[in-house]
Structure formats: structure tokens, C-alpha cells
Write a structure and sequence with these properties.
This protein has about 350 residues and is α+β, with helices and mostly antiparallel strands. Helix content is about 40%, strand content about 15%.
Length: about 350
């Protein structure tokens, strides 16, 4: 993990890329594409929006939306069907006691999502899921997270609609303010997880992981609490041309985290944790090699970034890793594949016949 913090500035809004037939075929093969009773376009037809406040009465970025009375029952029943698909593969017999309590809309950011709150009528337990406009970048990001990270994700598409489960955790900015120096978690465990998260994002080219785009999951252990940092926004998968955009340590919002690592890790230990995560990613990739190869084949053919950004990034990566093979890459998918090949060479050395793993 590099230790010099150079702030990364925000980029212009990224365009939305359609889900092309090749990616759609992949999604259907792995049951990521379903017929849905409610689409993103239908949810846009709300009648009224009321600003939503938090528990302390402060405004949020969300509005609670209201639909016409004559369509509300059918709409909410359709949303409950979607929730059943997410949680129990569509078995409605075990979710009859659930109801849709609220639909929220956020006009901030690229995805302008709807957030659906589902409540258990027996015990008032609540859960959420999101309905967004389908974007190929986000889909690749979700699938790469599912395949290459320690986290599993439930999501699926239908035409121009994307359904995502809620990712539970403490927002990164809240974690920095309240937990980073609280003593609740052993500092070395925080620093170790930050190095690993930084490496995961860089190798699979997930960008824009500033503090409000990831969450911290704290798990009590038999002696001390454990921590995992996980992404919750995948809009900036393989789009930006700047190398540092894919390294969370360089965002101004994350400067306290980068400094925390500098304070608690020496370079040798940081390299150890970086290499551990590389080895784990390689193991995960090997287990699902055929599926990953299919995904990267589609991603390699998919124009999800302007060619000038691809050329800018491939030059930076070639210099960073001292591997001219990057200069032959003509797509973001090819760059992700080359990053994985770089990891393979670092961990296991060259394969005699030169055959790529993915």
C-alpha cells in the first residue's frame, strides 16, 4: 500500500451504459436476469414527494414518494414479490406477513435509486432493497464484487431495471468519525482491513471508494471485534482513466484512514497484508475460473468507457506494475484481466506455456 496521500478530485457525472445482449446472456445463465412485476420506469410515476428526515430530524438526500391510491395496492404487492425473489427465490408462502412500508427516492448521484422498506408485521423488523436504472458498469461491478471479494451479493436485472439488496454496515464517514479512534477495535485489525480493501478495489478496478461509498461491518469475536470494509456503490466500475481513482487511500475523505495505516503499519507488514489479499483473490478466481472468464469475455467486448480513458489507465498501470502487456489492452475488461494476470505472476510465477488463467 502506497503511503503518500494525493487527493483525488470528483469527476464529471458518468453516463449510463446499456446492458448489451452478451452481458444479458451471461446474467440469464447465472439467474441474474428475471421477469419482474415492477420496473424502475413504473416507480418514476409517483404522485407526490415528501422530504425525508433522519432520526434527529435533519434532512436527508431522500424523498418519501406517494403513488395514486388506485395503483398503490398492486404496486406494493409487486414490490413484495421482488423482495421474495431476493430473499427466498420467489417463495411467496413464507412472506405473506411482510408489507411494503415506504418507497423513497434519491435524485442525488448517478443511479437516482428507489429504496424500498419492507416490514415484518409480526415483529416490526425492517429490511430494504433498491430499484435502479440498469447500467452495465454497475452490473459488472456487482458481479466482480460477488466473484472476487469475500462478500456475496444478491441482485438481478430485468430490461432497464436493476434490483440490489441492501448492504448492511456503518457508512465509512460515520465509521471514521465515531469508531476509528474509539478503541473498540484493535488498531492493527483496522489497518489490515484497510490495506486489503484498498487492494481489492485496485485489482478489480472499482473506483470512487470515498468514505460514503463503502461501509464498515463490525463483528464481535470471542476475544476482540473483527472488521470488514465492503463497497456499497458500484457505479464507477472501470470507467475513470486515472489510476489513483481506483485506490481508496487517495481520496480526501479517506485521508484519516490512510494516515491511520501509516501510523500503525510498517511497510513490510503492509506488503504482507497486500500479498495476503492478492493470494485470496487468486484463490477465489481459480474456484470460479470458467464463470469469471465468461464475464471478462463480455466485459472485454463492452464499451463501458471512452477509449481515451482506457489508454490513459493502461499507460499508468503499465508503469505502475512495470509490465508492457498492459499497453496491448483495448478495453477496461482487458485491463481487469491483465490485473489478475499480474496478481498470478506475483503469487505463483510464470506458467511455462504462457496460458492465461482467465
Amino acid at each position: 500500500m502506497e503511503t503518500v496521500v494525493r487527493p483525488v478530485q470528483a469527476s464529471p457525472k458518468k453516463p449510463s451504459y446499456p446492458v448489451r445482449p452478451g452481458l444479458r446472456s451471461y446474467l440469464r445463465r447465472y439467474r441474474r436476469d428475471r421477469e419482474l412485476p415492477v420496473t424502475y420506469a413504473r416507480l418514476l410515476d409517483f404522485h407526490e414527494a415528501i422530504p425525508l428526515t433522519d432520526a434527529n430530524g435533519k434532512p436527508t438526500l431522500w424523498d418519501s414518494v406517494i403513488y395514486r391510491a388506485e395503483e398503490m395496492d398492486d404496486l406494493y404487492e409487486g414490490l413484495k414479490v421482488i423482495y421474495a425473489l431476493l430473499r427466498v427465490d420467489g417463495d411467496m408462502s413464507v412472506v405473506q406477513h411482510l408489507y411494503v412500508d415506504r418507497v423513497d427516492f434519491c435524485s442525488f448521484g448517478n443511479s437516482t435509486p428507489f429504496r424500498i422498506r419492507v416490514v415484518n408485521a409480526f415483529n416490526d423488523n425492517q429490511d430494504y432493497f433498491y430499484v435502479k436504472k440498469a447500467d452495465a458498469s454497475r452490473v459488472y461491478g456487482l458481479e466482480l464484487e460477488h466473484l472476487l471479494s469475500p462478500n456475496r451479493l444478491n441482485y438481478f436485472t430485468c430490461g432497464d431495471t436493476l434490483i440490489e439488496e441492501h448492504i448492511v454496515g456503518i457508512p465509512g464517514d460515520v465509521f471514521i468519525a465515531r469508531h476509528l479512534n474509539s478503541g473498540q477495535i484493535k488498531p492493527i485489525r483496522i489497518a489490515k482491513e484497510l490495506v486489503k480493501f484498498n487492494e481489492r478495489c485496485f485489482i478489480r478496478l472499482l473506483g470512487d471508494m470515498r468514505a460514503y461509498n463503502f461501509v464498515a461491518v463490525i463483528t464481535p469475536d470471542f476475544e476482540e471485534a473483527q472488521l470488514r470494509i465492503r463497497a456499497m456503490d458500484f457505479d464507477q466500475q472501470s470507467y475513470n482513466g486515472r489510476k489513483n481513482f481506483y485506490l481508496p487511500q487517495f481520496f480526501r475523505d479517506n485521508a484519516p484512514l490512510a494516515q491511520f495505516c501509516i501510523n500503525h503499519l510498517n511497510p513490510q507488514t503492509a506488503l504482507q497484508y497486500q500479498r495476503e489479499e492478492q493470494a485470496l483473490m487468486l484463490q477465489r478466481a481459480g474456484i470460479i475460473a470458467d464463470r469469471l472468464a465468461l464475464l471478462l469475455d463480455e466485459m472485454t467486448q463492452d464499451p463501458i468507457a471512452p477509449i481515451e480513458k482506457i489508454y490513459e489507465l493502461r499507460t499508468s498501470l503499465a508503469d505502475h506494475f512495470s509490465r508492457n502487456e498492459y499497453l496491448d489492452c483495448e478495453s477496461m475488461g482487458a485491463l481487469v484481466r491483465e490485473n489478475l494476470e499480474t496478481v498470478r505472476l506475483k503469487i505463483v510465477g510464470s506458467i511455462p506455456d504462457g496460458a492465461p488463467m482467465f
